[in-house]
Amino acid sequence: MTDIQSSCAYCGVGCGLTISQNSTHTLGKTGLGLMLQGDNVHPANFGQLCAKGERLLDSLNQPHTLRYPKLRSGKPLDWDAATQLIADTFQQTIDQYGSDSVAFYLSGQLLTEDYYVANKFVKGFLKTANVDTNSRLCMSSAVSAMQRAFGEDVVPGCYQDFEHAKVIVLIGANTAWTHPVLFQRILAARKTNGCKLVVVDPLSTATAKQADLHLAINPGADLDLFVGLLGFIADNNTLNQRYIHAHTEGVVEAITHAQQFSKNLQTLADSVGVAYSDLVQFYQLFSQHEQVVTATCQGVNQSVNGTDITNAIINCHLALGQIGQVGAGFFSLTGQPNAMGGREVGGLATQLACHMGFADNERALLADFWQCGTVAKQKGLAAVDMFDALADGKIKAIWIMGTNPVVSLPNSAKIAKALADCPFVVVSEVSPDSDTAKLADILLPAQGWSEKCGTVTNSERTITRQRSFITAKGQAKPDWWAVSQVAIKMGFNGFDFEHNASVFSEFALLSAKVKQAFPDKHFNLAGLAGLTKTQYDDLVPTQWPVATIEQIGQRHQRVFSNGQFATVSGKAQFITPANVSTHLAKGQSVNGVENSHQNLPALLLNSGRSRDQWHTMTRTGHIASLRASVPEPVIHLHPKQLGLFNLVEGGLARIQAEQKTKSTSQDFTMARVVADKDMPVDVASMSMHWSKQFSLTQGINQVIDSRVDPISLQPGFKCQAVTLSPVILALQGVVFGIHDKAAAGLCWQVAQTLTNGICHHIGFENEQDGFAYQATPYSLKWTLTRVCQSGHQLLHIQCNIQKGQLIALKLLSDKPVNVALEPMGAFIGKTLNSQLLGQLHQQIKAGNSPLICACTGMTEADIGDEINLQFNQQVFNQGVTNLIFEQALDVTQSTLGCGRQCGSCQSEVNQCASAHWAEALTYTDACSDSDTEYQQTNPVKEDVA
After folding, report:
1. For position 851, what pLDDT does the model report?
2. pLDDT tens, 653-676?
3. Among 60, 388, 486, 918, which one is least packed by beta carbons within 10 Å?
4. Shortest CA distance to 209 belongs to which of 907, 945, 940, 902?
5. What HEC string does 64-103 produce?
6. How many CB atoms neighbour CB 164 within 10 A?
7. At what angle are helices 860-878 and 906-927 packed, to 10 degrees?
């Protein structure tokens, strides 16, 4: 096999990959000898990868893989029977209930070719626009804002702008974790050209810890912040009047409105929740530099006024003439590898292909091109409304591709029930294990990353070929092929695509027709319309618009540089927000909802990503190295809140929506409590990844309601009000090997993949249930007292034996059981004898150390030991008066490699090393026989590899 260039399957950075043969590295149970590296010449990453990307090959070792179509009963079907059943059921449903009784729900994980065929089928031939995508959950507010301001869903800039900017503003974006490779480019640029990094986020995230200025605003105050900034720009006469006059409209109304906020900056600072000096410093940095880039992500998008916030940001760049210019402008950080490609083909229910809307002339062009008579007449149902219609019985049949809405949508219990009650559910998936797949009437085996071929478009509009390098398992097929087969069986023409290249060629030709008919639109793939299959197969990363074939391979392209926009007038639009001041003052209830839990306080819950996980963990949850850093669901709270809610560090909290009055299994979740001084006092934070597949109490969207931005229809996941209550476990612990998941009394159960097996973190509210769980035959049971951080801990230990071998190891206690999971799991399958029991005791007594760096496997203890070694060597070599933390940190990272791979753990490494260094200083001070003053330089905020 020759080296294959492909693209990463995770975030919207769109990193390039090189896959090659490597006989020394066998890929798990696949038996394949492969090696994956970053593509050194790809314009998105230039060879760099994050921890998840580096382990993409590990994601192929799925516990279970779909290999053939099957019914919910488990009965297998061949493709001909499966597609005929789908075609017949869809036709019967439409005949009886109309076109709008069917729906498709797609994914940013699909390739552009998959997206295109699905949209052609549904909007063109089924005559409904009820086809939406999970991009609605992450990017649609940015889409709506750019459509309002620019006239088209176009990100104007490119990644190179981050390297030319003098000021970079990241708002609602923990880029160090969510887009690590791009964040490393930002840090490298700061080291090279001295740009200033401003982070706007209520939380002290890994990104905020490395900022030159962190504005820890009140939740929801970002709209006021940027409206006030526009007023400040006008008040201080830094408006680019020439640009505004020549290329924009609506400025007077926007500035008049904005100056109501900027007229008293002290009042504005108090309202936003930042110091006056910090507010002024930010406003001056922004308004006094010609090269400012503002990048947003889910913290902005996933709010009930995300569109207005984004337009307020764009307004500020328009005011300074900073759209489409080098090192300047608004940039939307895309969450998925092909969310952009899905938007290009009309994947959202509110769009048609090639950035067209539902105007008569646009619909007529599309109907003529597809030769389908007419297309859908109006916008379809967006994600939340679509599943509401499903719950109400209005949608009778739905096809879900490559996404897990039972977990990812708000009010997830309602989504699960709606799918369970729906007469006909088709799910295209790689694995049958997801919460959504388990509700399918027909499961279709889709080709996954490594098997399928096509294109994806990243955040900077670069189209990259995703290429297969593994033969598809069983009968797995491309999604575009599956849809085409159903379309053909329903009697529709135009779906006899020979291969993915022919699908792409038709899409590119459509873009040329649209550009010809609507020349003000900027999306254009005309230069790719005539590619042969060989040219398509060999296509190099190319940034659109691509008007001619000679532009293949172009990069660093900006749109709107000439001030010509895609609006009717050709001018960009200043947008005055419809409503402002929706943020919360300290202690105020979200959206004015009164707390229905009498005498219980409320917190604002901020859900987001974990550093090493992806979406609902169907791709990453089974990778041991990525699970190690956060083995169980956790909720981060400020220490002051623990007493208020009667919680304890390491204990369990029951999390419930504020407006719920009665707890059921459907409206709460649970998580371990982490006391975190970096958290705002009135805010809690929890990962959104957990699901029933991995956790008994499922995920955070159990308690998130379905309020949406009225313009983009994107759910407002961020900062909804919740209440917390303690869950008192009589016994809790961890079990390795064989485990009864249905054991009586289990109220806490989280599965975790280890290198060689699985362990389960478990808990019982009733002590007798826990002891009954251990009361199994053919076992040894005993108790052991060990010394731990909280004092003495009594452990109840059971070893289950079969034919002399250890098949299960159960450790229970009234406190959390912290042990090194990998070494403990390695005991399973070994012969149980006195020697093994001795090793087991030693390992239990040794405890555990948290993982800090997923790339290298370095733990807190590893970093602590090395930093202490460096401390001692400096004392010996330089004396106690010349201790240099930065030097010790650099040597520690060089020795261990932590923070020097993908860089996403840099702030955690720094924080861990700083804590151990400070502790070492106190020991030195205490042991000193002199009055020498020991000096320590402040730990650096960042260290770029």
Report:
1. 74
2. 999 987 653 434 458 999 999 999
3. 918
4. 907
5. CCCCCCEECCCCECCHHHHHHHHHHHHHHHHHHHCHHHEE
6. 18
7. 50
Specify the pLDDT at position 862: 85
The reported pLDDT for the residue numbered 868 is: 86
Structure-token pair, residue 388: 């509401």
Mean pLDDT, to the nearest integer, of 570-575?
98
pLDDT by residue (tens digit) across 266-307? 999 999 999 999 999 999 999 999 999 999 999 999 999 999
- Return the amino acid letter for 909: V
Q: Which two tokens stand for residue 75?
A: 């009965």
Helix (H, G, I), strand (E, B) or coil at 198: strand
Confidence tier at 589 by pLDDT (50, 70, 90): very low
Q: Which of 429, 327, 368, 409 is nearest to 110 (CA)?
A: 429
Alpha-carbon distances, residue 620 vs 8, 37, 880 (angstroms): 13, 18, 46
The Cα angle at residue 179 between residues 174 and 184, in degrees rounded to 5: 95
Neighbours of 504 (CB within 10 A): 27
Residue 773's pLDDT is 92
CB atoms under 10 Å from CB of 520, counted, come to 14
Whether the CB-CB separation of 786 and 697 falls below 8 Å is answered with: no
**Which residue type does 7 have?**
S
pTM of the model: 0.90
Q: What is the mean pLDDT of residues 766-772?
A: 93
Residues 6+ apart with CB under 8 A from 407: 434, 435, 436, 616, 690, 691, 692, 698, 699, 701
pLDDT band at 934 (very low <50, low <70, confident <90, very high): very low
Q: For residue 626, give both structure tokens.
A: 């990525």
State the pLDDT at residue 252: 97
**CA dist 767 to 494, 730, 815, Å?**
65, 5, 12
Whole-number Å distance between alpha carbons of 418 and 103: 13
Q: CA-to-CA distance for 601 and 585, rounded, in angstroms? A: 15
**Rounded Cα distance, 684 and 691, in Å:** 19
Answer for the pair 460, 337: CB distance below 8 angstroms, yes or no: no
**Which string of b and e fits 357-369 if b means at least 16 CB within 10 Å?**
ebeeebbebbbeb
Question: What pLDDT score does 473 carry?
Answer: 86
Question: Measured between alpha carbons, how far is 488 from 941 in angstroms, rounded to an integer?
Answer: 59
Cis preceding-peptide flag for 545 (omega within 30 of 0): yes
Residues in the chain: 945
Nearest to 805 by CA among 786, 784, 788, 830: 830
Using DSSP's 3-state secondary structure scheme, residue 388 falls into helix
The pLDDT tens digits for 745-765 are 999 999 999 998 999 999 999
Residue 782 has which token pair? 């005993």
Question: Which DSSP letter does residue 932 get?
Answer: P
Q: Which of 29-38, 255-264, 626-635, 830-839 has the lowest mean pLDDT?
A: 29-38
Could you give phi then psi for residue 720, rounded to 5 degrees? -90, 150
Task: Count the Cβ atoms, other than its own, within 10 Å of residue 790.
Answer: 11
Q: Answer yes or no: is pLDDT of 598 > 60.
A: no
Q: Is 498 exposed, middle or buried (0-12, 13-18, 19+ CB in 10 A)?
A: exposed
